[in-house]
Amino acid sequence: MIEREKNQNDIIDQELINSFGIDYIFDSKPINRLKNKPTIENVISRLNDLKKKIININNCNLKKNATQIVFNDGDYKSPLMIIGEGPGQKEDEVGKPFVGDAGQLLNKMLAAINLKRQNVYITNVVNYRPPKNRKPELAEINRYSEFLREHITIINPRILILMGSTAMEALFGSKIKISKERGVWKELIINNKTYLTMITFHPAYLLRQADQKKYSWADLKEIKKKINELKLII
Question: What's the CATH number where 44 sits?
Fold first, then answer.
């Protein structure tokens, strides 16, 4: 009688488990409760795969004229991601984005809101230097925007900062003007994921148009305010 009751209880317990739609497997091993959370190794692997994918592209005039790929800089675990236009001569030589005069200004802009460059993640729309530092052509922007979107999903930032019209066009299209779109929080949707996004002027533009720095300062203050609201540690 006792054995029969035990078997019936086992059946009831199994039916209860099945009612929740759970595939329950008894195992003596510890449960990995973080198995669904992307690991650091996974992020690094995905970044490396993306970099190889860009290196292996064919029929790219940017790639033909450049010294090397300029892929990224900073902390890939950062909740803040900055996207610029493309490498200049100095970036092409060093292999990192924003290391020339515009990069020095970017460092000062970040410091103005108490951020350190090494604590944010930085990349560009195009990863090879355009000839004579020209603006990337629309076809080039569109081609590299596919890689850029993948780059964003890998980093998965809480805040995305687009510096300059090229970054804006790569992700929002070419029918809008940066003078009207900067300084306003937008929602960028990639693969059903929404990224809080701010468009602002590129540091290289500010070096040419110093009178526009007042607008960038207003944008920086909004970015700092949002960082505080979200209680982000950067």
Answer: 3.40.470.10
Give the closest residue to 65 by CA, choosing from 136, 146, 153.
136
Domain count, the chain: 1
Q: How far apart are alpha carbons 79 and 115 in whole angstroms?
A: 12
Domain that holds residue 169: 38-229
Q: Is the dihedral of CA 166, 161, 194, 75 positive or negative?
A: positive
Overall average pLDDT of the 210-219 stretch:
98
Q: Decide: residue 69, CB within 10 A, 0-12 exposed, 13-18 middle, 19+ buried.
A: middle
Encode pLDDT of 88-105 as tens digits.
Answer: 999 999 999 999 999 999
**Element housing 30 (H / E):** none
Higher model confidence: residue 101 or residue 29? 101
